[in-house]
User: What shape does this take?
Amino acid sequence: MADPFYYQTIEKSAVAEFTDRGSKFIAYTFPVYSIDAFKEVLQQMKKEHPKASHYCFAYRIGADGMTFRVSDAGEPSGTAGRPILGQIDSKGVTNVCVIVVRYFGGTLLGVPGLINAYKTAASFALQLSPIQRLPIEVKYEIQFDYTITNDVLKNIKKFNCHIMKQDMQLFCMYVIGIPKISEMEAVHAFESIRGASIKKISDPDS
Assistant: This one.
């Protein structure tokens, strides 16, 4: 059963290469936390490898891992994206994308050959990507008077919250991620600060 309070992702990007009958498969792993971040990475790969024949990928995003996509990018259906996603899932990680750039070597590999190549390249790159365990966070907005900033920051530190967005004026606003494991206790602590109000944010992109 998945841990309700923590998820696993990769700490940093890695790259690995697999070659079969002249075709070169270069796999890149990236930690990504949104679809937009993934799109930027994909554009970057296309700029770095303008002469490649295919840019196949898979990603899984969100602490719950529910946002995912695979692409065969012109390869026969099911030969690239699915095998790549299979490697991400075998590692039990999320907020990860793997892009495999292929340079065609002149010899057709066939369906089994392609599946093996994309799976192996992705596996090699993921083996080089250190895994980290991070707390699942719940997003909240806190509004407070500037004079009580220190009290708010004390609680942010105490509960290992993560400031995602801030607007510091006479009246201030933070969007924070509260670790789910201490959510109730943290919310109660923020509510007990006089002059502060806190509300949960349900929109994942806000």
Notes: The chain has five helices and eleven strands.
